[in-house]
Amino acid sequence: MEGMNHSDHDMGPMTPPPSMNGTTMMPHRKMMHMTFFWGTNAEVLFPRWPGTNTGMYYLALLFVFALAVLVEWLSHCRLIKAGSGHVAAGMVQTLLHGIRVGLAYMVMLAVMSFNAGVFLVAVAGHTLGFFLFGSKVFRKSEEDEKVSDLPPMRC
């Protein structure tokens, strides 16, 4: 580019942060995993949760499992009574959809911790939830084909 003075954009030499005793001070940052890992020292959904406490890690796994089952229940439940007004039914559907999507995103964010245990319990929760609420195993008859107030989540 003609006429552009490149020296205006020169940031000068990059210098390290101030040092003490001849060593460079770098803030201590926790490394975020970008591949699956096994272990109980993870952060799931919230900073420092579950932390290094193994019992809290298993509580976090139970929480993610329950969220996944709840997402499947919301995907296959029938809460709107037959004969409800269209506006009221539409408002309930919209509220249920918002809750379902929000919980599904929470499960997704938990899986993004890249902890293999969290991934496995999320899949197990969705699987059990579908088995209980979406599969034909517990349906009473074929006339009960419309099993949900909400349309299925699609990619």
Give a structural overview.
The chain crosses the membrane at residues 55-75. This is Copper transport protein. One of its GO terms (molecular function) is copper ion transmembrane transporter activity. One of its GO terms (cellular component) is plasma membrane. This protein is mainly α. It has one domain (36-144). The chain contains 3 helices and 4 strands, in the order E-E-E-E-H-H-H. The protein has a two-stranded antiparallel sheet with strand order 1-2. A two-stranded antiparallel ribbon has the order 3-4. Helix 1 (54-76) packs parallel to helix 3.
The rough form would be described as elongated
Question: Helix count, per DSSP?
Answer: 3
User: What is the arithmetic mean of pLDDT?
Assistant: 80
Strand order, largest beta sheet: 1-2
Largest sheet, strands/sense/barrel: 2 strands, antiparallel
Uncertain segments are none
Report, as a whole number of angstroms, the end-to-end distance. 45 Å
Tally of structural domains = 1
Report the structural category: mainly alpha
Total number of beta strands? 4
Element string (H = helix, E = strand): EEEEHHH
In terms of topology, how is this protein built?
Blueprint: E1 19-20, E2 23-24, E3 42-43, E4 50-51, H1 54-76, H2 86-111, H3 116-133
Antiparallel strand pairs: 1-2, 3-4
Helix pairs in contact: 1-2, 1-3
